[in-house]
Design brief:
- The protein contains 10 helices and 12 strands.
- The chain has about 290 residues and is of the alpha+beta class.
- It has 2 domains: about 130 residues, no CATH class; about 100 residues, rbstp2171.
- A hairpin with a 6-residue loop joins strand 3 and strand 4.
- The protein starts with a helix and ends in a 9-residue tail after the last strand.
- About 25% of the residues are buried.
- It binds zinc ion.
- Zinc ion binds next to loops.
Length: about 290
C-alpha cells in the first residue's frame, strides 16, 4: 500500500471536528472561521502593516503535472481553522480538510485541487510545510531490532524526488486471461471512489486500514481486459469485488505495480540504531509535528 497516502491519513492536524458539526454554512463557527480566514474582521481603515503581511510567496514545480504552483506559507488563522477538525476520525473528511488547507495556500488562479495527481498533492503539502516551519523534521523512531526509541532528524530538502516520466496507464497482466489497466490517480478519482461511509465508526483501526488499502487499490483500476472484452467505467463496488476476489498472488503483483507508479518525495529514510547499530528504513512520519 502506498505509504505516502497512509501518512496523509494519519496527519495529526487533520483530526478535526465532525464534518456536519463544523461545515453547515449557517453555523456560527463557520461564520467565525470565514471571517477570520478571509480577513473580513480587519480594521476598516487600512493600517500601515497590512502591506507587509501575506507577502511571502514561493513556487515549486510539481513532479507529476510539471506545472509550477505559487503558494504562501500556512498562517495561524489556517491552523486555527484546521483545529476545528481536531476530533475528526474519518479518514475521508481528514483528507478534505487537507484539500482546504492546500487550496487556501495556493495562489495560482488555475489551481484545482481535484485535478492534482495524488502524489503531486502530497509533494505540494511537504513544500508548504517546508516554507511554513522549515526543512527540518524531528520524530521518534523505534528500532525494530532492540525496540529502543530515539529522536531522528531529517532535512526534508535532502530527500530525493522521483519524477513522473509517463502519465499513461500501466497495464498489468494477471495470468494469461486478465489485464488490468491502472491509472495515475488524481484527487478527483479518490473523491469519486472513496466516500466517508466506507469508514464507519464501528470499524476497528485494523478494519479501517484494510478498507483503506482495498479502496486505494480499487481506485487505481481504470479498465479490466479479459477474453470477453474490456470493461470501462466500472462501478467502485465491482472494482472492490475484483480486488477482494482475485488470488493473493495476483494481488501482490497489482499492489507492486501501483506502488511503482508513485512519485514525488521519497519518504523512506535510512536509519542506524544508536543502541544496537541495526540499520533499517523508516518511513518519514509526516504526521508528527507537521505543521504544529
Ligand atoms: Zn536497536
Amino acid at each position: 500500500m502506498s505509504h505516502s497516502l497512509t501518512v496523509i491519513m494519519k496527519l495529526n492536524l487533520l483530526k478535526l471536528v465532525e464534518h456536519n458539526k463544523i461545515y453547515p454554512k449557517d453555523s456560527i463557527v463557520y461564520f467565525y472561521i470565514k471571517k477570520n480566514v478571509k480577513g473580513e474582521n480587519m480594521s476598516e481603515n487600512k493600517l500601515k502593516f497590512y502591506d507587509f503581511v501575506n507577502v511571502y510567496e514561493f513556487t515549486c514545480e510539481l513532479p507529476g503535472s510539471k506545472k509550477t504552483v505559487q503558494f504562501k506559507p500556512v498562517t495561524t488563522a489556517q491552523i486555527k481553522r484546521l483545529l476545528t477538525y481536531e476530533n475528526e476520525t474519518n479518514y475521508v473528511i481528514q483528507e478534505q480538510a487537507l484539500d482546504d488547507l492546500i487550496s487556501s495556500t495556493v495562489l495560482s488562479d488555475d489551481f484545482d485541487i481535484n485535478e492534482q495527481y495524488i502524489y503531486d498533492r502530497m509533494f505540494l503539502l511537504i513544500e508548504i510545510r517546508k516554507k511554513t516551519k522549515g526543512e527540518v523534521l524531528e520524530f521518534q523512531i523505534t528500532c525494530p531490532e532492540c525496540n529502543s526509541q530515539s529522536l531522528n532528524r531529517v532535512n526534508l530538502d535532502n530527500l530525493e524526488i522521483k519524477q513522473l516520466e509517463d502519465n499513461s496507464n500501466r497495464i498489468v497482466e494477471l495470468g494469461d486471461k486478465i489485464k488490468v489497466h491502472l491509472r495515475h490517480m488524481k484527487r478527483k478519482h479518490q473523491k469519486e471512489d472513496i466516500k466517508p461511509q466506507l469508514f464507519s465508526k464501528r470499524m476497528t483501526d485494523t478494519q479501517q486500514a484494510y478498507m483503506f488499502q482495498v479502496a486505494f487499490h480499487a481506485c487505481a483500476i481504470d479498465k479490466i481486459e479479459t477474453p470477453n472484452g474490456i470493461d470501462e467505467n466500472i462501478p467502485m463496488k465491482d472494482r472492490v469485488f475484483f480486488i477482494e476476489q482475485i488470488p493473493m498472488g495476483y494481488m501482490e503483483v497489482l499492489k507492486e505495480e501501483i506502488d511503482n507508479m508513485s512519485f514525488g518525495w521519497k519518504l523512506q529514510n535510512k536509519v542506524k540504531c544508536n543502541h544496537c547499530s541495526f540499520n533499517f528504513v523508516e518511513e518519514i512520519p509526516i504526521q508528527q509535528n507537521f505543521f504544529s
